Amino acid sequence: MRSPATGAPAERREGREKVTGTARYAAEFPAPGRLFARPVPAGVARGRVRGVDASAALGLPGVVSVLTHENAPRLTEPDDPILAVLQDDRVPHRGWFVALVVADSPEAARAGAAAVRVDCSAEPHDVTLSGTHPDAYEPEEANGGHPAVRERGDSRRAFASAAVRVDVGYRVPPLHNHPMEPHASTAHWDGEHLTVHTSSQGTTTVRDVLAALFGLAGERITVVAEHVGGGFGSKGTPRPDVVLAVMAALRHTGRQVTVALPRRFLPSVVGHRAPTLHRLRLGADADGRLTCLDHEVTTHTSRVKEFVEQAAVPARVMYAAPHSRTAHRVVPLDVPSPSWMRAPGEAPGMYALESAVDELAVELGMDPVELRVRNEPETEPDSGRPFSSRHLVECLREGARRFGWERRDPRPRSGRQGPLLVGTGVAAATYPVMVSPSTAAARALPDGSFLVEVNATDIGTGARTVLAQIAADALDVPLERVRVRLGSSDLPSAPLAGGSSGTASWGGPVHEACVRLAHRLAAFPGPVPEHGLVEHADTAGSADADSGYARHAFGAHFAEVAVDTVTGEVRARRLLGVYAAGRILNARTARSQFVGGMTMGLGMALTEGSTVDAAFGDFAESDLASYHVPAHADVPDVEAHWVEEDDPHLNPMGSKGIGEIGIVGTAAAVGNAVHHATGVRFRELPLTPDRVLTALLESGR
Questions:
Q1: CA atoms of 580 and 194, how far apart (whole Å)
Q2: Which of 69, 441, 608, 669 has the lowest CB atom count within 10 Å?
Q3: Are 431 and 661 in contact (CB under 8 A)?
Q4: How far, in Å, CA of 215 to CA of 63, rounded?
């Protein structure tokens, strides 16, 4: 009997192309006469454009045009206001694009952009978030459609009467996605048809947005994202680069135009994780059972559009507490619009919650693993629905076994090694299971091979490979006989790669179409005709049907750190993650995703952070020289494992998303390890040497 393709550690199908440099990204589609365009950002934090002098730029060799709000093509008002570029004279935040220089080379475009003179009138601005900001308000919803406030019982009274209490605040700074491939788009009008290559997590969405903006029929647009060099949420929806590229191509019909955003522009125009201020109040009885759990979050949004980081939502899922209040407040400021960043809501929210749980364990004198196990809920606390599967306790137990947790001396500062203080920490993780309707087609060809078509996007996760594995099993054929086409809006429509929902959304119709094709082939008389046999599938009505179950992935993170008492430097020696994420469809790519998420969580804990300059109105850390992401040397030992989980309430594959849960608990595990090492509780990220050393000196340790 043939071994199943799913679950096997199949190699990435595009791996050779990537390592040999033959994989082409959005800015790498050269054509004769190609033009390059570079945006000009506003130089004030808030105001109006009084005038643009492009004469010097137009006099430079190679510069062919300059677009401003006075001569750019008019757009239909977009649903997403950040796409209304070059439509009026307003400047809602520093970095907002106010002109576009089009030239025959990237160098000429850069020189032309530097030569454009923009006269702006500055208006008073406010970019500073505080918990007492007078403009803070309670929104109707947080991101994802979650109610801003949820209450059960009387948490205020329960907290006042609790035997053991923790009342603490945490702060997570703005964070930036910084994918390896910056946002870029190449647009070309060929007669009546527009073709766009763009770095996006979903080309169906890009096509639909461009059609609405430019008043075009969708069939006149093809959007391609053959390879995408990372996104982490920032490429989940169209960004200004694709609109500007189409604008310039419309102005210069018949010539290709490429817009590749400089990395220093990204923090201002492609979204960021908004800063979050957290207040946690946990009350427990003497045995460690939670009696109340309150999580209140204050965050910022732009004045362009409302985006509320749903950081209090994970607290509605995690622990059994009869009394609870989770709430969000938001402050509109003159800042760039925040957006999705890997595990939005869960990453900052679980950092605060899992740090507070660790503080409660210290107050109780209880092992932090056992405290979490003791408060395991029977049903989802917020909704009361049964979990489709929940194996968090197994993750904690297996992680503790693999990590050697039983050898841990719980006393802070018990692990001194010369000038180094060594400590260990633990945190739990959760991420919701999400799935959207999708379509797919499967074709049997006369040579015995099969072609699967779906407009999925491979953002580096190995989507081509895992979809081929799903198809091979549904067809009951060897993996090498299946080809997959994806990444083009001309293919069967599919939702974007985001929310750890890609494989679950695309895999359902791929499986269904292949099962239908297999049944048809079994009953088909004679050989496959020259044009092949095709079956289609559409999961609308099933993938988006209401479920009676609360569906989430869970995990446990363990960390060992060494803190240098001379320099304040924190080094992660070991990271371990154990996950319950449904059926693992490809062991190789799954481990890569888990490790990648943990590495990003390590950066969140130790190196990544951004500040908004109050006077200048911009992010001070706008490139990889000042915004520090982890390198291989920053953690010598990182392991990812999973427990077997059979969940029949998800999709035909039994899979859950894995792209984001790896980041969720890492920062808290590292922070808790630093407390164990030093005896000092740090409540603001990142744990940089200056912050750590100052606290050690102030504590006299």
A1: 44
A2: 69
A3: yes
A4: 29
**Rounded to the nearest 5°, which phi and psi values hold at 22?**
-90, -10
CB 341 within 8 A of CB 231: no
pLDDT category, 1, cuts 50, 70, 90?
Answer: low
Would you state the structure tokens that stand for residue 514, as one six-digit string?
A: 């292949």
Residue 338 DSSP symbol: P
In angstroms, the CA 464 to CA 452 distance is 10
The tens digit of pLDDT for each residue in 239-251 reads: 999 999 999 999 8
Residue 498 tokens, joined: 């985001």
The C-alpha atoms of residue 182 and residue 230 are separated, in whole angstroms, by 9
**Closest of 452, 339, 433 to residue 659, by C-alpha:** 433
Which has the closest alpha carbon to 320: 296, 360, 291? 291
Please check whether residue 113 is in contact with residue 103, taking contact to mean a CB–CB distance below 8 angstroms: no
CA distances from 154 to 161, 293, 326 (A): 11, 10, 12
| 288 in Cβ contact with 297 (< 8 Å) | no
Instruction: Evaluate the omega torsion of the peptide bond into residue 686 and state whether it is cis, within 30 degrees of 0.
Output: yes
Mapping DSSP onto H, E and C, the string for 639-685 reads EEEECCCCCCCCCCCCECCCCCHHHHCHHHHHHHHHHHHHCCCCCEC
As a whole number of angstroms, the distance between CA 443 and CA 279 comes to 55
- pLDDT computed for residue 701 by the predictor: 63
pLDDT value, residue 482: 98
- Residues in contact with 420: Cβ distance below 8 Å, sequence separation at least 6, in sequence order: 562, 563, 564, 565
Q: What is the pTM of this model?
A: 0.97
Amino acid at 215: G
Bridge partners (DSSP) of residue 141 are 147
| pLDDT above 70: percentage of residues in the chain | 100
Name residues whose C-beta falls within 8 Å of residue 270's C-beta, 6 or more positions apart in sequence.
177, 183, 234, 235, 239, 261, 339
Three-state secondary structure of 449-489: CEEEECCCCCCCCCHHHHHHHHHHHHHCCCHHHEEEECCEC
Token digits of residue 173: 């700074």
C-alpha pair distances (Å), 87 with each of 69, 90, 163, 333: 5, 9, 59, 22
Q: Angle at the Cα of 337 (from 333 to 338), degrees rounded to 5?
A: 105
Length of the chain: 701
- The Cα–Cα gap between 411 and 367 comes to 11
The angle formed by the CA atoms of residues 125, 129 and 135, to the nearest 5 degrees, is 70
β-strands 35-41, 97-103 pairing = antiparallel
Helix (H) / strand (E) element for 195: namely strand 193-198
DSSP-derived pairing of the beta strands 420-432 and 552-564: antiparallel
One-letter amino acid of 643: V
Instruction: Provide the 10 A C-beta neighbour count for residue 569.
Output: 16
Name every residue whose Cβ is closer than 8 Å to that of residue 695 and which is 6 or more positions away in sequence: 678, 680, 682
pLDDT > 60? residue 441: yes
Question: Tokens in use for 280?
Answer: 């946690």
Which uninterrupted H or E stretch holds 536? strand 533-538
Contact 276, 43 (CB under 8 A): no
**Rounded CA separation 584/576 (Å):** 18
Q: Catalytic site residues?
A: 660
Identify the H or E element spanning 348: helix 346-364
Q: Which two tokens stand for residue 320?
A: 């059994």
Token digits of residue 430: 């959760």
Separation of alpha carbons 357 and 293, rounded Å: 10
**Each residue of 101-143: pLDDT tens digit?**
999 999 999 999 999 999 999 999 999 999 999 999 999 999 9
Q: What is the mean pLDDT of the chain?
A: 97
- Number of neighbours of residue 466 by Cβ within 10 angstroms: 30
Kindly report the backbone phi and psi dihedral angles of residue 424, in degrees, each rounded to the nearest multiple of 5, phi listed first. -130, 150
Residue 303 φ then ψ, to 5°? -85, -5
Match 């390059």 to its residue by tokens. Answer: 36
SS3 category, 349:
helix
